[in-house]
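Mods, move this if it's the wrong board.
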Amino acid sequence: METDKPATRAWVISPDIKSDQNRREPVSALEEAIALAAALPEIDVLGSETVRLPRLHPGMFFGKGKIAELKARLTEAEVELVLIDGHVGPVQQRNLEKEWKVKILDRTGLILEIFGDRARTAEGVLQVEMAALSYQRSRLVRAWTHLERQRGGFGFVGGPGETQQEADRRAIDDQLVRLKKQLEKVVKTRTLHRAARAKVPYPIVALVGYTNAGKSTLFNRLTGADVLVKDMLFATLDPTMRRVMLPSGDEVIMSDTVGFISNLPTELVAAFRATLEEVLDADLILHVRDISHAQSAEQSRDVMAILNSLGVADGAPLLEVWNKIDKLPEDAHAALTVQSERTEGIFAVSALTGEGLGPLLQAVADTLKDPRHSEVLDLGFNEGRKRAWLFEEGLVEADSQTDTGYSMQVLWTDRQKERFARL
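Not the wrong board. Structure tokens:
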């Protein structure tokens, strides 16, 4: 529900910690943190900065001198919310909020807030809400005003209030029990949908990639769909599926999925496992990269790490799509195009202009083209539905009636055989 409430005045801080072995390039890290903040319309980012630290301070996150320096800056700008692009512990959060007299939101809280604001499907909403409640339960140091919220998101951005910790804990536990029951019903429905989809003789092609890599633009270009496309992190959250005709005349189901991001909250990796079922079940994965981004290689590593954690990388074949070549200088554009042509499994494209999509679609068709083999099946008279399916799919080479049913010679792929077995 839209309101005329003024935007929350926010400040973005990206910690650059020397002792962190996984530290990212400071400029890109800050840019991503600002983009995350901009993904929430109710936040007005007044300023941002990278704060270099030799190490984290256990009680206050920052050292005394830096805390005082930042306090002066935040007070002068009349900041209400500080977004810290890293993990801030409950005690650190409480101490900083007391010291600066502002609300603190760390990277996990901000991503959860964005996901809560964007989730649309029943399962997406429930999964994110459960992830947020689990996260909140570990830091009962202030009120969780979102428990009776009237909007999307989880209320981290709203005003604080004081409640008893036990009452908060009971409220959260009651919510979790209720949500788990709701989720069980939704998952049952989803399982039925998956079973119905298994009967469709089309392979599934899943688009994955770092958030804002251009997956939705590519999806729209290939499918003629109208998925939300914005230069914004997490513009797509719930998976969308459409049918695509390949140059070979074969058809596939293409799935657009939520974008991945570095340091994805562990709560969300678990919560979105079900939402990523299209990736887990995919016959082919297209890893879409924003090849024009300065940190494209690092983003690629983050995506592959998440795919590995989901147990996906060792399953379906994967093609790498170097997107946004239209944003490159002419010489870099030409060099990457030549490199992709010479490297198996890599395709330089522009989802915006359509450049390079022909060879990509041909590769999709070639990758999914399974060898066919002949087999004789004996079906009983009571297996009419299976027999009809074989004819519908054009797999029957010979068919004769026997004393007990039908003897059928079929020519099919292993994938078609698996689908037949699931009927």
